[in-house]
């Protein structure tokens, strides 16, 4: 559960730590604003993907479904700086499908917490396997990490790609290639 008072106290300390004047007008409401913002951007911590993935419909057929270019914003757990980009999710139904928005909602459940991209990729795929129980799922994430661009090594434009395969996609390079092609097209 997100504790707004603790976040506000933490932000006040942080501002003091960098030598800022907490009483100047521009900063007076900042601790409160950030607490509100964290409720949104870390809202995934209290969220449960099964709520979204548990609402299914009978499949018309069991052909592959790809939802691509799902924009997401997350924060890296090492620096609490944003990483953001696109998620692509392919799955092969086993007589059940979910509404397409539920795939995007599942991405947000795992994006809105301090994260590591590899872990987020796996969590999305594993949640889909567990709750929708398809024949297989493949998740691809492509993101820019601000801890790589605005500080440290400073390599703007560098992109991190991660993917996982579960079920029918595992050990099936042809199927994986087909998804990569569909994502590129
Ligand atoms: N594998 C992986 N690494 C990440 C992710 N987000 C951030 N990192 C990396 O986490 C590492 C943390 O390294 P540290 O050496 O502990 O921290 P640092 O001194 O701030 O590292 P630099 O970024 O190299 O300055 C950095 O190399 C980041 O690029 C992620 O999602 N996945
Ligand atoms: Zn980072």
UniProtKB/TrEMBL annotation:
UniProt keyword annotation of Zinc present: yes
Superkingdom classification of source: Bacteria
InterPro entries in the record: GTP-CH-I_C/QueF, GTP-CH-I_N, GTP_CycHdrlase_I, GTP_CycHdrlase_I_CS, GTP_CycHdrlase_I_dom
Protein family according to the UniProt entry: Belongs to the GTP cyclohydrolase I family.
Keywords from the named record: GTP-binding, Hydrolase, Metal-binding, Nucleotide-binding, One-carbon metabolism, Zinc
Protein name: GTP cyclohydrolase 1
EC annotation from Swiss-Prot or TrEMBL: 3.5.4.16
Record-level GO BP terms: one-carbon metabolic process; tetrahydrobiopterin biosynthetic process; tetrahydrofolate biosynthetic process
Binding site for Zn(2+): 76, 79, 147
This protein's pathway: Cofactor biosynthesis; 7,8-dihydroneopterin triphosphate biosynthesis; 7,8-dihydroneopterin triphosphate from GTP: step 1/1
GO molecular function: GTP binding; GTP cyclohydrolase I activity; zinc ion binding
Gene: folE
């Amino acid at each position: 559960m997100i504790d707004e008072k603790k976040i506000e106290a933490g932000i006040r300390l942080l501002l003091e730590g960098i030598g800022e004047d907490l009483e100047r007008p521009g900063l007076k409401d900042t601790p409160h604003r950030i607490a509100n913002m964290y409720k949104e951007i870390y809202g995934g911590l209290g969220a449960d993907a099964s709520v979204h993935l548990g609402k299914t419909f009978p499949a018309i057929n069991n052909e592959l479904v790809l939802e691509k270019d799902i924009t997401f914003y997350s924060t890296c757990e090492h620096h609490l700086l944003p990483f953001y980009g696109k998620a692509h999710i392919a799955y092969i139904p086993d007589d059940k499908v979910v509404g397409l928005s539920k795939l995007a909602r599942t991405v947000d459940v795992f994006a809105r917490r301090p994260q590591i991209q590899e872990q987020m990729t796996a969590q999305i795929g594993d949640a889909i396997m567990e709750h929708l129980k398809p024949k297989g799922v493949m998740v691809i994430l492509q993101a820019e990490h601000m801890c790589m661009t605005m500080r440290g090594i400073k390599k703007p434009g560098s992109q991190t790609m991660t993917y996982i395969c579960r079920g029918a996609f595992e050990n099936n390079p042809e199927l994986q290639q087909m998804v990569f092609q569909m994502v590129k097209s």
